[in-house]
Task: structure prediction
Amino acid sequence: LRRVAVTGLGIVSPIGNGARTFFNSLVQGHSGVTRMPDELHPRLNCRVVAPVAFDGAAHFGPVRLRMLDRVSQFALVAAAEAIADAGALFETGDREATGVFIGTGMGGAQTTDDGYKSFYEEHSDRVKPYSVLLAMNNAAAGWIAIDHHLLGPNLTYSSACSSSAVAIGEAWKRIASAELEVMIAGGTEAPLTFGTLKAWEALKTMATEDPEDASASCKPFAKDRSGLVLGEGAAIVVLESWDRAAARGARIHAELTGYGLSTDAEHITRPTVEGQARAMVRALESAQVSPADVGYINAHGTATLANDGVETAAIKQVFGTDARALPVSSTKSMHGHLLGAAGALEFAATVLAIENRVIPPTRHLVHPDPECDLDYVAQSARPVATLTTAMSNSFAFGGTNVSLLCRAIPG
Amino acid sequence: LNLSADGTFERLQRILSKEFEVATDVIAPAARLDSLGIDSLAVIEVIFRLEDEFKISFPQDPGELPTIGALVSAIDQLVAQQRVQAPSKAEEL
Result:
């Protein structure tokens, strides 16, 4: 298998847009979780969300904007940043050897919501002519290819909360197997619409608002955790064959070394220790590293009652006696759960952590849960000069579990 | 700002240039919509916008509207017709 370099990062997130801003917020422990204004969707009981500060009109003209759901706007802005970050990516051509793999759980949810509102509630027949093109799940990937003229495979993965981790893992395989040279991979999600939020509320997995500080409502691994906080945004990475990146003198953020994929096949929502453990083991095997080599895990860490205990047990099963000394953190405590974009955003956080040798914290972990007894890097970021290998976990409703492994560039 | 001082053409011109990125100087009565970059789907967006602007409703099939001039005539005709019908419509609601 060929080596794969991460040469570009682009981020639109609830804790800031741009990779640098995003990572600064993570290290400083800033939370993007907030309480919705009272006048917005008063029929919602769950009122904490992690929205992105984003004005589409600042990036796109009115004609273009009418053809782009918020989910595609995020993806295009993140992709443009990632491609620019990668430097002279297409100077040597290779547009036919460049694919775009994107993950999204819900696609153009705002368009779907707006269309139904107008059609069912307002009894209007004025359904927007571009509705189908705005709402379809592969719109974001299609637009990225159009904007950057990328002629290789263009695929959209949808496996709920692991969608974009799958997209990155599958993209890694295409380069590792020498099928393609460059991949634009990642995820995007814009689920903060009235209908989508109500559906999530009905699922009873949403966090209750912290009465003293709404921004502290997402408490992964804590005894007082109450559920996830929905967020929005996009994270896109540029993956490139190592030799190509080296030949053009690209700045390499990290090496993507392993990808593990497994399925729970037990329950549509409830995770299994065995399933999660298997994804981690497969990632270690594909990277040919031993558990003891891993210096940090960016956990799935949703702050739901179900996930955090199971993930803790799965980590213990895989890492054995090393587990207690292994730093594990959930950055969802700050940026919330980006669903289909979560895996890519957290992979980017993992890459930035090893590149900067700083582990971002699990915020709002004040009251430990005896069942969750690992080192969760509670509250404050931790510099680790020797950090070289890190794992990013993404698990999902439907049972698709993914672990990605990356390694720091020496020096 | 007194909008009534504006003719239908000027209001249409303003919408097309600001919201549909058509250069003002090419918007002329004889100009074909497709030559202005307004394709068949964009025409529907334009019509929705004009319905709001002029408080009219276009028939389900607005028929042939190939040029700016044809669109202006259609708007003026609908405004005249639907102004007369307006009271009865208000009663229905």
Q: What stands out?
A: Chain B touches chain A at residues 18-21, 41-42, 44-45, 48, 51 (CB under 8 Å). The radius of gyration of chain B is 14 Å. The first helix of chain B runs from residue 8 to 19.
